[in-house]
Every structure is written in C-alpha cells, then in structure tokens.
C-alpha cells in the first residue's frame, strides 16, 4: 500500500514536470510559422514503418548502424515491460500483464536478451566517444556540453539496462529458490543466476526491489531529462519521420506571398506602378527562430547531433564553414534563448540578436550548394535544406544581401536575360542558322500532356 | 586671342603628356590663326618652363603661390579661368586625366563655355567647331558641335603626337590670388619606382589565363626589359593576385599605350573598354575563339606560361643590342 | 546630414549600340535601361554610410534629369534604398544642361553631400559633377575612391597620378566618384521593390538654359584589321614585327 502511494506520488511528480516541459515547447511552437500541411497519412505511415521502425537509413553506416538498430528495437520491446512496471506500481500487482500468455513470454524474454545487447552496444558507443577520435563527433558546434550530454545519456541507458538485468536475475533466482515457475523465459538472466549463488530469499527480495525502483526512477528521470537533451530524439524521432517532407528533394517550395510580385516583375514597367496587394505581407524567409516553419523547429528538436549530415556535406568536406548539423542545432539553441523572452514580452520582442549572423553566418549559408546530401543522409528525415533556403530567402528578399558574384548574376539576368555579361541582342546566337518558325517550338500531343 | 593650354606639373617637372598638350594647342592655334599660351600652376623653375616653348607655346604663364600646393578644384579653376579671360582665350585645352576631369567642368561653367571631353584629335572643323570623341565607352564615336563662343577641350592621354616647334621663350610670372583652401590634405600615398600605368608607352598585362599569382615572374621580367608598366584584368585584381592599381578595364584604369600585351586575357568587352585606345595590342591565349583576338593586331595561340619565357629571351636579345 | 545622389539613365553596358536616322539618333528599341554604374556605386556608398548611425545621415535623395520614361530607373534607385527622388522633366541634352537643371532644383534643397559618378557609360562626358559644383558655388573633390565620415567631417580619398591623397572637405560639397567608392553595387531586394512604390518622386519643370553642344552624328568604329598570328614556337617573329612593322619597340 505504501509502495503504491509513494509510486503514485513519484509518477505524479514526473508527469507534472513532463507536462511543464511539454507546455513550454508547445508555446515555442506557437510562435513559429504555419505552412507544411500534413496529408497523405497512408504514405506517411509507410515511411515511418520503413525509416523509423525499420531503421533503414541508420544502416547506411552499417557497423554502428546495427548496434543502434538493436538499441532502438530493444527500447521498443522493453517499453512493454516498463508499462507493466507502471501498472504494477500503481495497483500493487506483480507482473500484471502476465495473463497475455505466450505473447507475454515472447516480449519479456526478448526484453531480457535486448537488455544485454543494449548494454553491450552502449559500452561500444561509450568507448568510441571516450577513447576513439571519431571525426563526426567533432565540430565547431560540438561544445563540451554536447559531449557531456551524450555521455550522461549513454550512461543512464547503461544503468537502465543493468538495473533491468539485475531485476530479472534476482527474480529468476527467487523463483528457483522458492521452487516456483517464472512468469516468462529469461534467456540471458537465466544463465547469469550464478552471480547470485548463496543469496537467500530475503536478500534477493531486497535486490529485486532495489533494481525495480532504480529502473523505474531512472526511466522517470531520463524521461524528464530528454526534452532538454540531444536525446529528445527518443520522443521526437518517430513523429519526425511521420512528418517527413514528401516532395522530391530537389524541389524547392514556392512562396505564395511573392507569386504576385514575380508576375509583376516579368513586366518591369508595371513592377513599380502596381498598387499594394492589400494586407501587409509578413517577413520573407527566416531571420530569426520564430520565422521558421513549425516543421523546421520540430526538426531541430528531433536532431540528435549525430553529425551524419555534416559528414557527407560536400561543402564541409572541402573545408567550407557550413555544417548542416550546426544549422539545426543553432535553430534549437536560438529558440531556447528567445522563446522565454517572447513568452514574456510577445512575439515581436527584439533582443537585438537574430538567428542569422549571430548564430548562423552568411558564409555558412552561401557555402551550401543545395545538393541535399544532408537530407538524404539524416536517419530521421530532417530537412536541413528547407531551413537554409528559407534563411537565404530572407537575406536576398528582405536585405538584398548576397555574395558579390550572385548579386552580379541577378543583375545580368535582369538586364541581359542571361547569368553572364553577354549582350541581350546575342541571345539567339546559339541557334545559328537553325530555322525556327516564329520562335515557336511545336510540341507533340504527348509532350504537351506532360 | 589665344588657345590657352593648362600644363600640370609633378613636383615641378613636366611629363610627355604635358608636351603632347602643348603640341595639340599649338596645332589648334594654327587652325584658328592664333597662338598658344601655356599656363602652369605651382613651383616650376624657368628651365623646365622653357621646355614648353619647344613645342609651340608662344607665351608661358606661371602662376605661383603656396596656396596651390594643395589641389583645390575651385582655386585652380578660378586661376585658369582668370587667365583665359585675361588672355582672351577662344579655346582652353587641358588633359583628360584626373586633374583635367576635376577642373575642366568648373572652368567651362565659369567661362560659359561648352566642354568637349576626351577628344583624341584636332577638331574636325573650326567653324562650326566640331570635335570627334568616343561615346558608349568606346563602342562608338560622335561628332559634336560646340556652339559657345569659348570652348574647353580635354585631350585623351597618348592620343596626339609631339610636334616640335621652337618658339621664343616668353615666361610671365603671376602671383596667385590669395585664396583660402577648403580642401585639407590628411595623407598622401605615392607609388614610387614603378612605371606609372597611365604614363607608360608599353604595358604588359596578365589575366586569369596565368593560372596563379606565382606565375607572374616572366611577365614582370618582360615589363622590366621593355621598360613597361604591369597591369592586370579584373578577376586577377579581385582575387588579390595583383593590386587594384594595376586593374585596367571599364571598371579600372582606362589606358592608351602604344603597345599593350594581353597575356592570358580573354578580352571581355569590359576589359577592352579600358585598353581599346592602345595603338597595338598583342594577345597570347590558348583559346583561338577568345574575343581578345578580334581586338588585337598580333596574336599567339598557345599557353602563355610556355611562350612567355621564350618571348622574354627574344626581347632580351633585341634590347641587349 | 542629407546626401544627394545624381543618377543617370543609361543603356545596359553590354548593349550593342545601333544608330538610326542617318546615324543621328541612338536606336532605343530593345534597350534595357539601367542606372549608370558609377551612380549605382555612389548610391551604394551613401546607403552604407546611412546604415551606420554614427555617421548621422538622415536622408538619401536621388536626382535625375529625364523624361517620364526614366521613372523605372528612378524607382530602381528607390528600391535599392534611396528615400525619395527628384526628377527634372526634360530630355538630358548635354552635360551643361543637366548640371544647370540640377543646380536650379538643388538650390532649394537641403543637403550636405552631393555624389556624382565621374562619368556616365553613354557619353563619358565627365562633366556634370564639376559643373554642378560650380553652378552651386561649392567645393568639389574629384576621382574619389573612398568616402568616410569621421567626427561629422567628410574624409575622402582621391586618386592622383601615381598614388592617392586623403583629404577633408567642409560640407556642402560635391564628390565626383570613381569605381572603388563601394565594393559592389547593391541590388534591389523584394521588400525594397515593394516599398519603392510608395516613395515620392517629385517632378520639376526645367528652367531656361539651352545646351551648349549639339551632337551631329554617330560613327561606328572601323572594323579592326584581322589579327596577325605568330607561331608559338617562333616568338622572335613577334619581336621583329613589333620592331619593324608596328615600330613600337
């Protein structure tokens, strides 16, 4: 009874803290821009099953990929056990879901195996991080806190698995000594009961309780740390994949707000004469965190700082300042800084800083050649490029700011109809002596249909 | 009545361009049935001043005074306009260099004179007074009538030859008006040693075809042998391979040397606008379709990096003789 | 302080100029008109100076002499960032005419710095700036390569033969600028184009003053003689030609 009351209070506290975090983030989301309608649920479900559950993109880095996949699948399976522990804690039962029979044995048994697999994988990960020099983990955006964050999370998972394994071993040994059958099979723990040889029932009981409470408290602790850690992706990754951008990668979104303007500009004489469209149009592109589309912000929260994107970025590989990972991390960090200020003072509040220039430099932005290697590589389908393009759009369309050669190119296109400094009159020289009737190209039926 | 010609001095000395101006003014005076009067401002000694008489100056006026140590456009143009009125000038001639561009327009307004800027020949006719000048950055020429009674002309550099015509030396010293200089000089940076690009008769210029700033040595060597100035195209100065002061082209310096070597330069219109006044252009480029060959009189199709050393040797032999 | 930038409407610099009416007139069909490149750079520098609050620039006005057909070019200048514009409604005959008309209007305007490009890419006259300064009876500094404001004073760098000179000049003055005054010209941002529609263009009628020059006709440059090619293996031949044929060595 006491155990139930204590457990309920702890659970309540955990949920309370978690709700606070959730509300905080929801408030930040409400500052961001709408856009990115979510449709085609069937297609999205398919992608989620393949990329998120199936971990297909994680396998692009095969050796660590398999280890991560095991950790992920293990988490999914062990989740079942964790739910049971919460039910047990609240209702004072033991193994409440036991009635599920063979299914129960399968899940809990797998969980037992996964505990060992996950613990081993974590040791590999920690070894890599602490003792090996992995290039992908370095970078100007990877400050000391990022490494501490990663190591703490890995250590917590390790402890979670140790406590789970400990709990299982104690249980099996308890049942053996009491000559009772176990509620499930424990392939790994069953083999490790030797570690507890000589422990009596009372001692085993204490060990079991200790491991049980450690495990569930660690879960509660972990769950509340995650929203503030790079490991937020534990919650955010599967939804992020569900919310993947469905358009082909090379396709940039058009901006409805300037379609009218572009049409006017095709006839320069009228471009300046036209009256205003009516309502004042909001800022073009992204200058600061609140200008970003909600999906970009979601991306930035789901980002786990793995660095696979940066490791395949051709600009980064050839020594340019751009790091796609940094772009996502910067958006997250900026909202973390400005979000609370906006909650207090309103969305229009200015702290005299902005995402562009104070966090992400123009040099980084213009180094991007929009190849989409980053979005192709990201295991959880983060779309770095849409954010980079959105910031560039702000620079060009609001400030007229771009590298000199691009500005020159814009002028040439405007004045000469070509990106180079050739005379407009020479435009058709390439046609040489081709006979083109009235400068029209006649399409066939099929071509016209396309 | 006379043709007044303003002759600038550099630290008390005249340059080839000064004598070209006097030659032009003297010839123009002949056309008008008049004489050429040269005006100098600043400290120039008599021996130097008398050189002007060798090219046709009937009278030489030297305006002196410390106030003219600083180029104040208002003061210089006032002084010259005053002389123009005093000597009843029908035409005032200046160079189309930085000095000329600074003061000729002001002189023109003071004298209510029409300005023919950047002419490269004697007037087509004197009645009506028609001048021939470049327009559209060198893509065309125009015949322009100057309708006013007095005319101001600025002569393009290196476009008129020196004509020796010894006149008796008649120097008049005038004390400049005491004027206040509104311009104050804070700092001066002068290039020393190198042949000035705008003065040079021969210019050796390199473009992107030189591939790297490390390849410039033979170019500099060639310039040294020929006593030429070095120049470059815009991409080269933008990249920082050579200084901006060497950049010739529409957006850089406009020059008109006797001989211009365009090495590894494609010959885009913007570059040609800066050098089309050259009497002779020699182009070296790997691309046989490069536009520079349309502007050049002599061309070598090939790799500049291979050709230059041989060219340097060939010139060295000739110059050595 | 207010800055006034004089702008000229010229054909795009890649235009292959053609003449009509017995070569008396420029054929304007198909010509793309732009702000004179030197003036564009002046405007850019003016905007750069205004952006630094320490310089104390309040307003940037562009001034132009031209008919209503040049309004798109003036709007472009407003889109790039000028605050307002003045247009004298007259055909820009010659440099003196333009300078005189500008001076008449500017006598009633409040400004401290006037910027003019050293030449325009169409007639290369190099005269409007100097003439304007003379009509207004204010100092002028020519061949300006850079302009800064220090302690409310204008510090300019001007080009002299074989070097540069840094000078200070009291306001009001005319700076006649070379390329180099700004690194590269600004472009009109989308936002700028939209706001340009509401910026004012004040139109004035021209006063008196006839042109002092008259353009009689144009001529196309003579086609150059074909290039003589020299064998790359035999550069001596070039030396000989330059010495004996061209006689430039």
Task: Give a description of the structure.
- The complex is a heterotrimer of chains A (450), B (321) and C (249).
- With 450 residues, chain A is an all-alpha fold.
- Chain A has 20 helices and no strands.
- Chain A has helices spanning 2-31, 41-53, 62-91, 102-131, 144-177, 187-191, 201-225, 233-242, 256-265, 268-271, 294-302, 308-312, 314-317, 324-345, 355-358, 362-367, 373-377, 384-399, 404-416, 445-449.
- In chain A, α1 runs parallel beside α7, α2 packs across α8 and α8 (233-242) crosses α11.
- Chain A starts with a helix and ends with a helix.
- Helices cover 29% and strands 28% of the residues of chain B.
- Chain B contains 9 helices and 16 strands.
- In chain B, the strands form 3 sheets. Chain B has a 7-stranded parallel β-sheet with strand order 5-9-4-1-2-3-10, sandwiched between helices.
- In chain B, a hairpin with a 4-residue loop joins β7 and β8.
- In chain B, α3 crosses α4 (98-110) and α5 (217-226) packs parallel to α9 (304-320).
- The longest helix of chain B has 17 residues, at 16-32.
- The model of chain B has no long low-confidence stretch (mean pLDDT 92).
- By secondary structure, chain C is an alpha/beta fold.
- Chain C has helices spanning 37-51, 71-80, 95-106, 128-136, 190-196, 236-245; strands spanning 2-6, 9-11, 19-20, 25-26, 33-35, 59-65, 84-88, 113-117, 140-150, 153-160, 163-169, 173-177, 201-204, 213-219, 228-229.
- In chain C, α2 crosses α5 and α3 packs parallel to α4 (128-136).
- The N and C termini of chain C lie far apart (54 Å).
- The model of chain C has no long low-confidence stretch (mean pLDDT 92).
- Chains in contact: A-C, B-C.
- At the A-C interface, α9, α10, α18 and α19 of A face α2 and α5 of C.
């Amino acid at each position: 009874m006491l155990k139930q009351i204590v457990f309920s209070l702890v659970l309540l506290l955990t949920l309370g803290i978690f709700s606070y975090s959730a509300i905080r983030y929801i408030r930040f989301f409400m500052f961001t821009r709408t856009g990115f309608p979510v449709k085609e649920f069937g297609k999205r479900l398919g992608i989620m099953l393949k990329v998120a559950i199936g971990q297909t993109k994680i396998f692009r880095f095969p050796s660590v990929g398999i280890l991560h996949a095991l950790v992920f699948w293990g988490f999914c399976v062990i989740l079942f056990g964790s739910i049971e522990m919460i039910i047990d804690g609240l209702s004072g039962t033991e193994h409440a879901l036991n009635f599920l029979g063979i299914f129960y044995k399968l899940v809990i048994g797998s969980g037992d195996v996964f505990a060992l697999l996950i613990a081993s994988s974590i040791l590999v990960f920690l070894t890599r991080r602490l003792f090996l020099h992995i290039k992908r983990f370095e970078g100007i955006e990877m400050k000391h806190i990022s490494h501490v964050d990663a190591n703490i999370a890995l250590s917590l998972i390790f402890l979670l698995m140790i406590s789970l394994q400990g709990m299982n071993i104690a249980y099996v040994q308890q049942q053996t000594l009491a000559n009772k059958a176990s509620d499930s099979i424990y392939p790994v723990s069953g083999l490790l009961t030797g570690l507890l040889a000589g422990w009596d029932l009372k001692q085993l009981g204490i060990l079991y309780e200790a491991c049980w409470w450690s495990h569930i408290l660690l879960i509660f602790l972990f769950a509340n740390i995650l929203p503030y850690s790079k490991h937020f992706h534990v919650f955010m990754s599967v939804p992020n994949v569900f919310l993947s951008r469905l358009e082909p990668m090379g396709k940039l979104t058009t901006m409805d707000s300037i379609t009218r303007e572009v049409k006017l500009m095709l006839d320069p004489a009228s471009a300046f004469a036209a009256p205003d469209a009516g309502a004042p149009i909001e800022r073009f592109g992204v200058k600061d965190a609140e200008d970003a589309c909600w999906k970009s912000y979601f991306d930035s929260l789901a980002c786990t700082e793995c660095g696979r994107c940066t490791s395949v970025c051709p600009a980064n590989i050839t020594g340019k300042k751009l790091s796609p990972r940094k772009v996502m991390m910067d958006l997250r960090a900026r909202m973390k800084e400005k979000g609370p200020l906006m909650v207090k003072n309103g969305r229009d509040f200015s702290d005299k800083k902005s995402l562009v220039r104070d966090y992400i430099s123009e040099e980084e932005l213009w180094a991007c050649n929009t190849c989409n290697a980053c979005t192709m590589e990201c295991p959880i389908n983060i779309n770095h490029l849409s954010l980079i393009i959105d910031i560039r759009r702000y620079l060009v369309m609001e400030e007229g700011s771009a590298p000199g050669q691009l500005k020159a190119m814009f002028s040439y296109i405007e004045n000469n109809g070509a990106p180079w400094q050739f005379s407009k009159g020479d435009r058709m020289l390439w046609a040489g002596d081709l006979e083109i009737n009235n400068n029209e190209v006649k399409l066939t039926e099929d071509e016209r249909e396309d | 009545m006379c043709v007044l010609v303003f002759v600038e001095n550099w630290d008390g000395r005249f340059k080839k361009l000064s004598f070209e101006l006097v030659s032009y003014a003297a010839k123009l005076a002949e056309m008008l049935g008049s004489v050429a009067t040269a005006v100098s401002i600043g400290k120039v000694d008599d021996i130097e001043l008398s050189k002007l008489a060798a090219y046709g100056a009937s009278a030489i006026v030297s305006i002196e005074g410390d106030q003219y140590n600083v180029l104040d456009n208002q003061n210089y143009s006032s002084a010259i306009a005053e002389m123009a009125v005093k000597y009843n000038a029908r035409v005032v001639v200046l160079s189309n260099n930085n000095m000329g561009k600074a003061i000729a327009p002001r002189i023109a307004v003071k004298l209510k004179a029409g300005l023919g800027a950047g002419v490269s020949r004697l007037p087509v006719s004197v009645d009506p007074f028609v001048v021939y000048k470049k327009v559209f950055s060198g893509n065309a020429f125009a015949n322009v009538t100057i309708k006013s009674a007095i005319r101001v002309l600025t002569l393009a550099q290196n476009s008129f030859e020196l004509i020796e015509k010894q006149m008796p030396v008649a120097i008049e010293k005038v004390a400049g008006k005491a004027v206040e200089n509104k311009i104050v000089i804070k700092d001066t940076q002068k290039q020393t040693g190198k042949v000035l690009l705008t003065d040079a008769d021969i210019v050796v210029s390199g473009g992107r075809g030189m591939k790297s700033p490390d390849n410039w040595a033979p170019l500099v060597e060639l310039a040294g042998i020929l006593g030429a100035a070095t120049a470059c195209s815009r991409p080269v100065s933008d990249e920082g391979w050579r200084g901006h002061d060497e950049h010739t082209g529409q957006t850089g310096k406009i020059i008109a040397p006797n001989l211009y070597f365009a090495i590894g330069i494609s010959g885009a219109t913007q570059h040609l606008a800066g050098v089309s006044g050259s009497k002779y252009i020699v182009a070296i480029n790997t691309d046989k379709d490069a536009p520079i060959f349309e502007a050049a009189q002599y061309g070598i199709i090939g790799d500049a990096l291979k050709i230059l050393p041989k060219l340097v040797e060939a010139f060295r032999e000739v110059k050595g003789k | 302080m207010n800055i006034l930038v004089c702008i000229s409407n010229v054909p795009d610099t890649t235009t292959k100029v053609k003449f009509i009416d017995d070569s008396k007139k420029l054929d304007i069909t198909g010509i793309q008109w732009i702000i004179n490149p030197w003036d564009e750079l002046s405007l850019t520098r003016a905007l750069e100076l205004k952006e630094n609050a320490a310089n104390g620039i309040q307003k940037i006005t562009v001034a132009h002499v031209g008919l209503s057909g040049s309004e798109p070019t003036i709007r472009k200048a407003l889109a790039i960032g000028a605050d307002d514009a003045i247009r004298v409604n007259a055909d820009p005959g010659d440099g003196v005419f333009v300078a005189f008309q500008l001076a008449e209007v500017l006598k009633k305007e409040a400004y401290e710095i006037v910027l003019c490009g050293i030449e325009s890419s169409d007639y290369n006259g190099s005269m409007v700036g100097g003439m304007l300064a003379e009509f207004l009876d204010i100092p002028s500094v020519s061949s300006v390569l850079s302009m800064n404001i220090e302690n409310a004073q204008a510090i300019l760098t001007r080009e002299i033969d074989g070097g540069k000179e840094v000078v200070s000049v009291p306001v009001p003055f005319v700076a006649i600028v070379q390329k180099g005054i700004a690194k590269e010209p600004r472009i009109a941002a989308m936002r700028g184009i939209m706001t340009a529609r509401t910026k004012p263009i004040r139109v004035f009628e021209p006063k008196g003053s006839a042109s002092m020059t008259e353009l009689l006709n144009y001529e196309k440059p003579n086609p150059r003689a074909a290039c003589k090619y020299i064998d790359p293996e035999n550069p001596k031949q070039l030396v000989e030609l330059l010495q004996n044929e061209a006689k430039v060595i």
